[in-house]
Amino acid sequence: MSCIEQKKYKILLEKTTFKESREYIEKNSDEVYYVHPGYKIFNDYYVIGIPPIALGAKGTALFFTYTKPCHGTFVLTIDDEQSKKEIDRLKEMETDKVRASLKKGKSPESAKASQTSYEDVWKK
Amino acid sequence: MTGAKVLLMMGCPEIPIQTSIALYLSHKLTNLGFDVTVAGTDAVIKLLKVSDSDSYYVKKMVDLDKTLEDIIEKRTDFDICFAFMHNDAGMTYAATISGISQAKLYSVIFGRNAETLSEAIEFDTEKIVAKDVHNPIRLKSKVDKVVERIAK
What we know:
Low-confidence stretches of chain A: 104-124
CATH topology of chain B: Rossmann fold
Strand content of chain B: 15-25%
CATH class of chain B: Alpha Beta
Shape of chain B: globular
Number of strands of chain B: 6
Largest sheet of chain A: 6 strands, antiparallel
Order of helices and strands of chain B: EHEHEHEHEHEH
Radius of gyration of chain B: 14 Å
Order of helices and strands of chain A: EHEEEEEEHE
Radius of gyration of chain A: 13 Å
Helix content of chain B: 40-55%
Shape of chain A: globular
Oligomer: heterodimer
Number of strands of chain A: 8
């Protein structure tokens, strides 16, 4: 899982709680997608955490959480060709695997996953 | 439940009673016939290996993140998991196990913030809580009661 450390990332938030990290992603992303623990991004990084796990898209940058047992949770971002592909993949995923919460008046057509509320995602 | 696969998932090892209870619980469950694996970070594994240099108390030690990856990819799973935690990151790992594994989950919560941490847990788990840092006796007593029950 620590393969992510070899990638070119920026730290947006560090050594905080998972809840605060989720809130940061929700507040600072244009689009937010909620995934289950174990969702794989960048070929070899499994996102872990307390559901709902938020992944954020801002332009071509992907915002995601990274948790270390002794250092807490970080919000990292990667903005490259691969992050663009990951955002496209999130948009195209089946709705039972990925849920999108569109923000800031974005049109629903910008994401194929259904629009839903934060709470609704985990009721099922 | 004898023969069942048990995972002891360690958190950050900075609270002293974690290593003590891990060694104790691993040995106790192994003696009862459980197949016990301890998963932890490099620091956790080193602490256990130095404390138990002949692998008398812990037979199997594995990397924590690799174990999660194996469970996610369905290469392995466990029947029971004891998730040790004293901070938010430990709870995050336990929540992950709750979401990816079939294991019956016990959250072993300790340290000065044990009660607050316990109240923050929203996933399905049985909590074993002791607000202790250095003295493992109270946590040991609570763990014993759970082990007694699952060994039946």
